[in-house]
Amino acid sequence: HSLSDTMAYQQKLAEKLTILNERGNGVLIRVNYIKKICSDPKLRPSLLTDKIMDPAVKYINKKFPNVDFRGNNQHLTSIQRQKAEVMSAASSYYDSFLDVMEFRVNILSLALSINLHIEWHFPSINFDLTKIYLDLIVTYTSVIIMLSRLDDKKALVGMYNCAYEMTNGTCDSSYPRLSQMLIEYEQPWKKLHEDFGPHTRLVTSAVLSLQMVYPRRNLPADQWRRAQLLSLLSAPANMLDPARCDTVACEYLSMEVMERWIIISFLLCPSSVNSHPPSLELWKAALRSGLYLTLTRDEALNIHKVSEEVFDTVMCVLRYGKRIADIKECREHAIQNNGALHRERRGFLRGALKELFNVLEDEPGLLGPKALYVFMALAFTRDEVLWLVRHSENIPKTKTPEDYVDNKMAELLFYMVKLKALVVKHSYVIQRYHVQYLAQFDALVLNDTIQNMYVCPEEESILTSSFVSTLSALSIKQVQNKEKFDFRALRLDWLRLQAYCSVNKAPLPLKEYPDLAKVMNTIQFHTRLVDNMEDLLLETSELSVLCFYPRVFEKMFQQSSEEPSVKRYIMAFPYICSDFICCAHPLCPEEMEGIQSKSMRLCVSSMQQIAKLTANVVLDICAEQCNLNDQLLPKNSAKTISTARNKKLKKPVPKKGEVEMEKPGAESVRKDRAVVTNMDKMHLTLTELCSSYDLCSDFIVSDHIINPAEFLLSHLETRLSEIIVKMANNSPPSQEITRPSDLLAAVRSYSASLHTISGYINLDVSRLVKSILLQQTQPLDSQGSKTITSLYTNWYLESLLRHASGSLIAHSPTMQCFINQPSDSDLSFRADEFSDISELQSLAQLIGPYGLKYLSENLMWHITSQVSLSPFLTLCSLSLSLPLVGGENVLKRMTIIGVILSFKAMAQDCLNDVIPFYILCIYQYGAFLNGLLPNAFVLQVTLNVFELASAAGFSCDIDPALVSAIASMHKTSVDEEYKLTCLLLVYIAVSLPSLALDPNSLYNKANGGHNNNIHCLAVAVNQLAASMFTIQGKDIEQQLEEFLLLASSTLLQLGQTVERVESKNRDSVYLLLHMIVEQSPFLSQDTLEGCFPYVLLRNAYRSVYKSCIVTLG
């Protein structure tokens, strides 16, 4: 071998370039991370925020690098006291700066070696070597620029070295070189020019290798359209032919990468621009392409401003004055034309990607020969998206700012995602095709090419032979057996061969064998399709930079969500967040958590917005349907019936000024189908939004599984719960609330409308509705808000029953409801409209057994507050020695208790009517146990059975809820409670005659009860006595018989009075005895006849009904 060839083998240029590139990316990300945390007040290191350290930081920044660490320097006393903590806190930053210095040394050393030996050719010859070299230059420049933007680097390095010297007595060995590097690169472009000045020839020749590729790629959309770029349908006869070209890798090479190579390389070597016309043309073309270039993450380079500074300060102004004028001209050109140029490109790509996806989805077999088209499409689209992202943050002053706004960005992202998913789904097709292609075509062509080479040294011969043998050994069976392929060694060998054959005076000069390079470049692409497709997809479609532009991401999403025709694509925004984690680097693990949190935040916020948009449309449709359904309710039929009756009776026609009422269904009558109604628009919007959910059923973002349908369900659940409560229309000051039947009709209408969503998207609507209605049966929902159970419970207690306790509302056993009493103070509602059977059945269906249990508990609380055993019964015991002191108060309390229990019984009966339609098994089981329960059962078992039966709506001999409520009150001894209970019954019995003095005690024949609700005393006595004696373990029947004897005796005495005033309502009061016995499961009519003459009851009924007119038919 020649000396240069031997050096190429020994220096391992290919390996060094590969390793340094990977290392450089990590160092760049690390420096950027340090800059971000130092500039963020929330993340800034404590060393720089601690006020105690302020004097030390200012002193080090002022004296750096010659900081006097010795002696009693009062500025550094804070570091002296905490030197161990300072070293620990600053060590990671110091080590990162050492990494930069080490990277710089290796780069400059490698650049010198390459400058001495390597020569560049066109991309079709040694593309990989050229690419990796230019990448390394750009990465190194970016590291230095980022280092210069880090304001706190001197403080961090100086503080670490100060603490180190205070601890070890001498400064860190690397500190002099590191501090010198930081000083030298304070003006980075000047020093970088010095570093790369000797390499101008090599750098320029590397960049000029793009002069054929870059202009061909940088074309306007109309030329793409004329060339039918990315179209598989333009030449149907060639559809099955494999996509081939001499520069395969250049076809999907990022435009931004090429522009970065060109701009930064000529900034490092500006002299070539002035002396070489092709360099000047390439440089100007890149300057016209945009205003900013990405260094890393969201750090951008203002290319015109920096170029002007470099040519103005670093180079001689007199020699480069024309170039400054060129820069200004290019900037004006970019501002005026680039916005429209890229807008047109995005418009073309939207159509091209859609066509490409539709063809490949229909014929996935074409992914084999046309795989290159997919990666070209992804790369072109990614370039346009990233261009808009970095320019949207800094829109220049232009007459057409709308060029920098794209409200159809979602469509581009959507088809990028769909194409990627298509490639992943049919990867087997691509792999199978290219394994056969490599073995049966590429290997043969490569072998023929090698055979035609007239010279091939031993090392090169070994590599080329290994290429052929590796490819020839491939078999379709390996794909069928799902074997893992790994061609990384082959690709690295090809990079080595490029390095060997690109040195000066190489024995096998690659430029003399372009066919070998073209074949190997194609083979490299084909091998990546077999074993490295994921990285290839990442390279051409990765959009992780959006993670660092959250405002741009949210702005683009908002613009797309407002465009009706793009709503079906907006799911692409949260989906691309799954790729953000790909930009993390092992050299900066601290950044991982931040990227994950940003990804999740952007994903969740956009998912919430999509779900909100969908839920709004769904609920708007439901509301419209509810309004239409409301027109069909019986309450709204009166006007229609009245109109029909008037028409039949030939009454006068309404005047012309009066608007005739439309009949329900008129909205569906159309004279022209082209007329679009509001409902049509809402259904179209819903169709578009629901189509976006078809993108995927779920995806992973930062180790979290994101299910779009669950977001929608969650929003619908929250919103629908709010709507149901809002439809209840509860207003405590005015005592208004929606009738339960009306609310039930509205809920049913919403439920029916929600089930239509299943035609648009795969949602478990039944589970959603059940979950919402189940929450409404509790006092608070999952959000902690009040439910209709809470609202109706409060309304019935505070409005209906409170007025009933004041005799403004009467309980009517005949009509089984509460009715308004004629009075001076008119109520704002009609009691019968909220308490009849149909309304209470509707209430039972709305709030269910759970809600009625909550209602029952609140009713029991009011009963216990009326009973208040201690003061109430003490009053009874004291009053026995006096002539009926406070009798009216006791009977009033008992009447209120009776009213509450009567309402509870009505609600229970209505629950019993509706529950068989919902929980038939519980209903049947409760009925069975309640019917077969023997009297001798254990008390606790009896109460448990009664509780089950009560939950199913059955009436029980003993009310378990009342037993539980009374038992929970403050207790004295059982004997004492028993005495007080007996005294209470005695007091009630002896107080009954006083009711005859009340004019409202008159029995109302129509209502079947007394006007002052004293007929409810029967329920109160029976239920209260049964509950109290159950708790005390006494015989209920015996105690009630004694009460009946005493009550009969007192009422018989009432019959002996001759005063007309006292006996006015005597007959109405007599009926109470019959009611008590009739409603008691423990007393019988025989018992009543034994203590109270039946003739008196018969005469009493005759007396109260004598003026009642009975109509038959």
How would you sum up this structure in a few lines?
With 1113 residues, this protein is mainly alpha-helical. It is elongated.
Please indicate the percent range of residues in DSSP E strands (runs of 2 or more): under 5%
Low-confidence stretches: 1-7, 879-884
- Record field, number of beta strands: 8
Question: Total helix count?
Answer: 49
Task: Report the radius of gyration as a whole number of Å.
Answer: 45 Å
The main pleated sheet reads as:
2 strands, antiparallel
| Class computed from helices, strands and strand pairing | mainly alpha
Record the strand order, biggest sheet.
1-2
Task: Assign a percent range to the helix content.
Answer: 55-70%
Straight-line distance between termini: 126 Å
Overall pLDDT, averaged?
Answer: 86
Shape, principal axes of CA atoms? elongated
Biased composition (Basic and acidic residues): 655-666
Protein name: NCK associated protein 1 like
Organism: Gadus morhua (Atlantic cod)
Region (Disordered): 646-666
Descriptive overview:
With 1113 residues, this protein is mainly α. The protein contains 49 helices and eight strands. Strands 1-2 form a two-stranded antiparallel ribbon. Strands 3-4 form a two-stranded antiparallel sheet. A two-stranded antiparallel sheet has the order 5-6. The chain is elongated, with a radius of gyration of 45 Å. The protein starts with a helix and ends in an 8-residue tail after the last helix. 41% of the residues are buried. Residues 1-7 and 879-884 have low confidence and may be disordered.
